[in-house]
Specification:
147 residues; alpha+beta; eight-stranded antiparallel β-sheet; 8 strands; 16% helix
Length: 147
């Protein structure tokens, strides 16, 4: 198996997202990819609170794509296929920031991993400012990493 320059297996390499600096402390964390079959607990809570069926609602909005879960709490990031926006949600499932999905992303099919944008975010309430600073982090699960 090929190795990266630091000697780690390429197969174990990952890309993650780090959010810092937003006005909502609970979303200022690191995120990693998660199976589309796993439903965020906060998303499920919001569905139950509103009387929506959890699994079909997640399937309709997430459209079978992998999503990003926090490595330290239940915050999450996903591409909403129904409204055309990326969402950053706090651990309880309430939306905090949204950013439009690009026209290129709309045209893509399947469960392709597309990273959320680093710019273009809008707060869903004024007290969520400042906007998040989003960093794409590359690392390796077998080696030491910042994530």
């Amino acid at each position: 198996m090929p190795a990266t320059s630091n000697g780690c297996s390429v197969a174990k390499a990952f890309v993650a997202v780090r959010i810092r600096g937003s006005g909502v402390a609970s979303v200022n964390v690191d995120y990693r990819w998660t199976s589309p079959h796993t439903i965020p607990s906060g998303f499920a809570k919001v569905c139950r609170d509103n009387g929506w069926d959890v699994k079909p609602t997640w399937q309709r909005l997430n459209n079978g794509r992998e999503w990003m879960c926090s490595t330290s709490n239940d915050a999450y990031i996903y591409r909403n296929a129904a409204d055309g926006y990326w969402w950053i949600d706090e651990p309880g499932g309430m939306g905090v920031f949204i950013a439009p999905i690009t026209s290129q992303e709309h045209e893509e099919e399947g469960n392709q991993r597309r990273l959320p944008p680093v710019t273009g975010w809008t707060p869903l309430a004024p007290n969520f400012l400042p906007l998040p600073q989003i960093e794409i982090v590359h690392g390796n699960e077998d080696c030491s990493s910042d994530v």
